[in-house]
Amino acid sequence: MKNVATVFSVVILSLQMAGQSTFNDIAPLLYKNCTSCHRPGGGAPFSMLSYASTAPWTTSIVHVLQNSEMPPWSADTSYLHFVNERQITQADKDSLLKWIYDGASQGDPNLQPPTPAYPLRQLAGTPDTVLQMMKFKSNATTSDAYNTLVVPLNLGQNRFLRAIELIPNNPQLVHHALIMAGDVGDIDVDTTGSSFSTDGEISIGTWAPGSMPIVYPNSSLIKMGIELPANGEIGMQIHTPKGTAGQLIDIKLRMYLYPINESGVRQVHDTVPLQYWANDFFVPAGQVKSFSVEEVWPPQTVSIFSAFPHSHQICSEILNYAYKPQTNDTIPLMKIDRWDFEHQEYYYYKNLVKVPAGYNIHSTHSFDNRSTNHHNPNSPPQLITVGFSTDDEMLFDGFQYLAYQAGDEHINIDSILKNDPLLLLDVSEYERPVAYRSVVIPNPIRHQARIEVIPPLSASMDYQLNVFNKRGQPIKMVYFIENRGINIQRSYISRGTYFYEVVSGAQRITAGRLIFN
Q: Which of 39, 60, 165, 396 is in the most buried spot, having the most CB atoms within 10 Å?
């Protein structure tokens, strides 16, 4: 009877294990939903390209998935759709959670699907100009810093901007950047760390780690661009995360312009018609309040290209729409149910949105100044008033638009941008063809060991060894790349289990575990 029970138990256990997912099963979901940011050089705090760098963060992954905080995307797509929506499907979310609940096992590392390799630049061809922003050291000590930099354009004559790409030396030092332009002298340099307001008559767009470059449609159906002044300048408000003080920030802007005297380029305008600065704009501690504003806009029929809703930290919901007062005919523009100041951006409509002249445009923002709002900067909550500081609040909603032409609302902007020859990045085109594996000899380690990589590391490439503890924190490790492998020395490393990965540029080569006695 004992033998029968034992056999039965083994069969049940085998069936259970057969149904368990491994990292090999969910890796493609991470590549699709996460690794545009969660990779070396992607700006996120840890990489998801390997089991070693992902496994220590499973508790955090459960939290952000259950609370719909990652991938970062605020707009309600049941209200309106946008270009480049970063929404994870329920099926993908369930698969990731199942893997974690099953024990987050690695599986056979030799069977992990090839990891994507991300190019340093996402726009093809040669830019018309590359602007070097002033290099500076972060002044974000115990709080985030905001600095505004300015660089002259010197174009010689007015030119239309086709696309722009921001290249930072370290994406983790730039939480996001607002890019604007104006005539010389319009934008003030401010490196105090408290540059909360933005100057410049021309708003170009935003950049954040993992985001796509700013590209304006250029096709037989529509040709769009922002006109830059001949004697102008580019400004950039840079948001730097706290705890980065002293680190060098070096940013280049790759700019693509339409040819001189290019015909048919439609001018992109920007406006912020929805603003609220009244004296009653304050939110007492422990309260939830909403504020609304309406304007008669536009004065002439327009085609809206993008929206940029803006508030600060305790805002929770945003609603924008246009309507005709006589009939209440309503045009949806924006609905955000979970505003996140840390992940604000321009939202580009899949189709241009026609708003006729004489309509009213409306905005309502809700603000939650309770302790249950985990975005609240104060504990306990404090009175918050309207103002420019990050700890104040704002209602400041803007749009990019064109003068309307017949048929604009039928132009599929999403399709045009997805097929734009300027855009390089397609993850499926950058897969690593060689499947590497590695072994540590000896392992466990007392003093020193060697990581043998199969096939051996290339003598013509540069490699880096990254080591993490169980909490995902990086650990300094003394190592030498010799004879196409890696020699490591224990130094001061405490006993325990650690994870390693070998990377070349932004490409993960192999990964595994280190055990120190």
A: 39
**For residue 442, is the peptide bond before it cis, meaning its omega torsion is within 30 degrees of 0?**
yes
Percent of the chain residues topping a pLDDT of 90: 57
Average pLDDT over residues 496-508: 80
Yes or no: say if 272 and 397 are a contact pair by the CB < 8 Å rule. yes
Query: Can you tell me the distance from the alpha carbon of 410 to that of 140, in angstroms, rounded to the nearest whole number?
Result: 46
Residues 169, 171, 175, 179, CA torsion sign: positive
Tokens found for residue 240 = 């730097």
Helices (H), 55-205: 58-66, 90-101
Confidence of residue 27 (pLDDT cuts 50, 70, 90): very high
Q: What is the pTM of this model?
A: 0.73
d(CA 20, CA 386): 52
Residue 338 has pLDDT above 50, yes or no: yes
Could you give the CA distance from residue 293 to residue 142 in angstroms, rounded to a whole number?
35
pLDDT digits 0-9 by tens, 68-79: 888 888 899 899
Band of the pLDDT at 183, cuts 50, 70, 90? very high
Give the max Cα distance, the chain.
92
CA–CA separation, 416 and 423 (whole Å): 11
Print the SS3 string covering 384-445: EEECCCCCCECCEEEEEEEECCCCHHHCEHHHHHHCCCCECCCHHHHECCCCCEEEEECCCE
Gyration radius of the chain's alpha carbons? 26
Pairing of strands 224-228, 266-267: parallel
- Count of CB atoms situated within 10 Å of the CB of 92: 18
